[in-house]
Design a protein that fits this description.
- By secondary structure, this protein is an all-alpha fold.
- It is 80% helix and 0% strand.
- The protein has two domains: 66 residues, Alpha Horseshoe (Serine Threonine Protein Phosphatase 5, Tetratricopeptide repeat), CATH 1.25.40.10; 69 residues, Tetratricopeptide repeat domain (Serine Threonine Protein Phosphatase 5, Tetratricopeptide repeat), CATH 1.25.40.
- The protein is built from nine helices and no strands.
- The chain starts with a helix and ends with a helix.
- Pfam families: TPR_16.
- It comes from Chitinophaga japonensis (Flexibacter japonensis).
- InterPro entries: TPR-like_helical_dom_sf (IPR011990), TPR_rpt (IPR019734).
Length: 170
C-alpha cells in the first residue's frame, strides 16, 4: 500500500507541473515550433503555430510580429498589416522603443509593397524622426515619395541617403 502511495505521489510530482503550465510557457513552445517551420520554408504550417501561441497567450507579442512577417512573405498584406497593427498604435509612434522601431520598419515595407505609398512615407518619416542617421529609412522615404508621384522630393531624399551612407563609411 505504501509503495502504491509513493508511486502515486511521485507521478503527481512529475506530472502536475506540466498540467498547470503557464499559458505563456505553452505559447513560447508553440512560437519556437513556428519559428523552426518558418526557417524551413513551411510558412503555412508556421502560421498555425503562431496563431496557436496567441490563443494560449493573447499578449504574446513575438507571435504577432512573426504573423506579420509570414503574412508579408505570403504577400497577404492586409493580414500582415492587421497583425503589425496589433503591436503598435498611433500613440506608440510618438514614443517608440526598440520593439516599436522594428514594427515601424516592417510595417513601412508592407505598406510600400501593398502600394499604399502615403502610409509607407508616413512610417519611414517617423522612423527617420526617431533615427535621423538611418540612411535606409531615408532611402525608403524617398522611394515612397517617388512612387506616390512626388519625384523631385523623393529623388532629393534618395540622393541624401546615399551621401549619408557614403559619409558613414569614411
Amino acid at each position: 500500500m505504501i509503495r502504491i502511495l509513493c508511486l502515486l505521489f511521485l507521478a503527481a510530482v512529475l506530472i502536475m507541473p506540466a498540467a498547470v503550465a503557464h499559458p505563456r510557457d505553452k505559447a513560447r513552445l508553440l512560437y519556437k515550433e513556428g519559428l523552426a517551420l518558418k526557417r524551413s520554408g513551411k510558412l503555412t504550417a508556421a502560421l498555425k503555430y503562431f496563431h496557436a501561441a496567441i490563443r494560449q497567450d493573447d499578449g504574446f507579442a513575438p507571435a504577432y510580429l512573426e504573423l506579420g512577417q509570414v503574412y508579408a512573405l505570403l504577400e497577404n498584406y492586409r493580414q500582415s498589416i492587421y497583425y503589425y497593427r496589433k503591436l503598435i498604435n498611433e500613440d506608440n509612434l510618438l514614443s517608440a522603443g526598440p520593439e516599436d522601431l522594428q514594427v515601424i520598419y516592417h510595417l513601412g515595407h508592407v505598406y510600400y509593397y501593398e502600394g499604399n505609398y502615403k502610409a509607407a512615407a508616413a512610417l519611414w518619416s517617423r522612423l527617420l524622426d526617431l533615427q535621423p542617421q538611418n540612411g535606409f529609412a531615408m532611402f525608403m522615404l524617398g522611394k515612397s515619395y517617388i512612387a506616390a508621384g512626388e519625384q523631385a522630393k523623393g529623388e532629393k531624399l534618395c540622393d541624401e541617403s546615399l551621401r549619408l551612407e557614403v559619409g558613414s563609411k569614411k
